[in-house]
Input
Amino acid sequence: MLLSLTNTPRDYAWGSTSFLAELEGRSPSGAPEAEVWFGDHPGDPADVDGDGTLDEITGGRLPYLLKLLAAARPLSIQVHPTLAQAQQGWAAESGKALDDPTRNYRDDNHKPELIVALSETFQSLSGLRPVSDTLVLIDALGEGAGVSALRARLSGDADVLRDTISWLLSGDAQSEVDEIIAAVTAAAEGADAGEWNAAIQAIAGVAQTYPGDPGVVVALLMNHVVLRRGEGLFLRAGLLHAYLEGLGVEIMAASDNVLRGGLTPKRIDVPELLTILDSAPAEVPVLRPAADGAVTSYPVPVADFALDRVTLTGGAVARAVAGDTMVLATAGDVAIETVSGEVRTVPVGSAAFVSADEPELRLSGVGEAFIAAPGR
Output
């Protein structure tokens, strides 16, 4: 079975008014367009060309959710649960309605995710920076009372990052937060801060969007990562992160479980966030896989999904179908054909669904497409 898929962009406030329109070669709608979901998740199943939605075809069994993501402003600082944490949280909230504003868990699944940049650059805050490096960074912020208080917190014993995040988000540190944000702004406007300049400039930009938000100072504790087009970033459960700006293809386990820690008007549950947070500091490696012919694969350590990028130069590229598969066109002219003889063109910004009973698919044209499937 071969189906054409579309969906309406979700109008989250952080969405871009131009990225998706430019990708698809159409006029901007004038509204923010943040995400396009290609999946069967009940939160927003994809529309099937002709009639109905994808969940009516699949029964909601897809283990992954594929998206286009277009951020013009920072997303919330957030973290996703492990499978065990999601199941426990879902069970604990079983008495709450799904639209209850105090609910943290929308389903009982984990949400590891992979983002691959489509824009020339894609900025992210990903994972917690080693404390020794953050102490060097904050030396560029001067010696104000707020900065000194942050330095003292980070110089403590035990789990200093978890304790510092708890302090910042507690509501009791607002005066220090305001002083630190002022110091970040001043540093961004002052002399070049060397190796930390890009991070300080990025966080100063976050502060402009969310003045006074404690999440701005939490961002100071995080790795500033800039992807180039085609590079990827895998975010495991428990890892604190926030996308800042850019257009990308995102794939994740089929879940909508998000615990937020700042940079958002939405609900923040600090105790629950701290429960699932992995506060171990570490760099998050950028995925720069080499192409194998026309295909570039992005290896991830989960069984929920696999993602390949296919560069088409006029010849056909055949791929075995191993489970329900999607093909998302991101540039040029892309066509798909199955062994059973069905053929579809896939307009840029839309997708095709190939059911698991098809043994193979063939892509042709001149352009670029991403193939999403269950994990290998």
Q: What stands out?
A: The mean pLDDT is 95. Residues 132-209 form one domain. The longest helix spans residues 174-189.
